[in-house]
Amino acid sequence: METIIGVAAGILTSISMLPQLIKVIKEKDVENLSPYMIAILLTGVSLWVVYGVMLLEWPIILSNAFSVLVNATLLTCYVLFRESR
């Protein structure tokens, strides 16, 4: 049961920023995004990946690695779309 809860939590937290990323890519509007929040979140999920690697816990590694990818993409979009205005 613990594994099911852990995997479900990992999936939900990993996909939580996808709607924001999709909206930013579609609209190319980053005016209301906080780059600091994204950077802090990116740092946090990166540390979770390191922690997962230290424990060899694949659910932690994979879910947070996906979050790293989504948040790094969002931060990249922030930089690209902000400069284009």
From TrEMBL:
<keyword id="KW-0472">Membrane</keyword>
<dbReference type="Pfam" id="PF04193">
    <property type="entry name" value="PQ-loop"/>
</dbReference>
<protein>
    <recommendedName>
        <fullName>MtN3 and saliva related transmembrane protein</fullName>
    </recommendedName>
</protein>
<keyword id="KW-1133">Transmembrane helix</keyword>
<dbReference type="GO" id="GO:0051119">
    <property type="term" value="F:sugar transmembrane transporter activity"/>
</dbReference>
<feature type="transmembrane region" description="Helical">
    <location>
        <begin position="36"/>
        <end position="54"/>
    </location>
</feature>
<feature type="transmembrane region" description="Helical">
    <location>
        <begin position="60"/>
        <end position="81"/>
    </location>
</feature>
<dbReference type="InterPro" id="IPR006603">
    <property type="entry name" value="PQ-loop_rpt"/>
</dbReference>
<dbReference type="InterPro" id="IPR047662">
    <property type="entry name" value="SemiSWEET"/>
</dbReference>
<dbReference type="GO" id="GO:0016020">
    <property type="term" value="C:membrane"/>
</dbReference>
<keyword id="KW-0812">Transmembrane</keyword>
<feature type="transmembrane region" description="Helical">
    <location>
        <begin position="6"/>
        <end position="24"/>
    </location>
</feature>
